[in-house]
Amino acid sequence: MGTLDGQVVVFTGAGAGIGRSVVTRFVGEGAKVVAVDISEHVTELADELGHAVLPIVADIATWGGNVVAAQAALDTWGTIDVFVGNAGITDGARPLEDIPGDRLPEAFDQLFGVNVLAPMLGVRACIDALIESHGSIILTGSFASTQAGGGGALYTASKHAVHGLVRQLAFELAPDVRVNGVAPGVAPTRLRGIDALGQTSADSVLDGTERALPTQQIAPVSAYDGVFTMLASRADSAAMTGSMVTVDSGLSIRGIGKPGGRVDIG
Fold it and tell me: Per the confidence metrics, is the pTM higher than 0.85?
C-alpha cells in the first residue's frame, strides 16, 4: 500500500530531471499521473510506468494546454487530488546589464510565462476539482526564491514570485486546498534557456560546484522525490500549507570563508 494510493495528480514539467523522477516515485506510491511537458520525451513515461501515467505534450504557458491536462485527468480518472507546477526555464544567470534593452520585454514574457504564469494557469484549470477533492498544490521554487545569486535578475525575480504565489494561494484556498512549494538548490538537470536571448538548454551543474556546497556533493534528482511525496500525502503533510521547503544541499547556510565548518578546503 503506497502513500499516494488512489490520488490523481496533474504534473507539469514531467519529461525530465526532477519532474520525471518524482512522477516515477508518485506512481510507485500508488498515484495516477497526468504527466505534462512541452517535450515529446514525456511520452516515454507511459512505456516505463504503464497505464498509471497519461502523458500529454502541451505548452503549459497557454490556457489551452492546461485545460487539456486537467480535462484529461477528469475524463480518465474522475478527479484531481494534486496539482504539481514543476515546469521552469532559466536565464543562464544573465545579469540585467548584459541583456539588450530591446530584448528585455520578450525575454521577460517568455521566462515569466513558464515560471510564473504557467503555474497560475495550471492551478486555475484544476481549481474546481481540487476544491471538491480537498486536494493540494505543490509548486517548484528554487534557492533563488529567497536568495540572490541563484540566477540572473529575470530568473530570481520569477522564483521569488513563485514563493509569493505559494503563500497567496495557501491563503486564498484555505481551508479546502493546501498549497506548498519545494525549493531545490543545485540539481543535475538541464534547463531550457530563453529563446529571445539565443539561449539553448544547458547543464545546471558547473564543474566544481560540489566544492561550494556544505554537503560537498551534488545530490541526484531522486533526492527530491521524498519531499514532493510528503507534500502530496494527505497524512504526512496535513498540517502544512503556505510552506516553501528548502532542499538546497545547505546553500542557504553556506559560510563566507568556507561552505561548512568541518570542510577542509586545503
Answer: yes
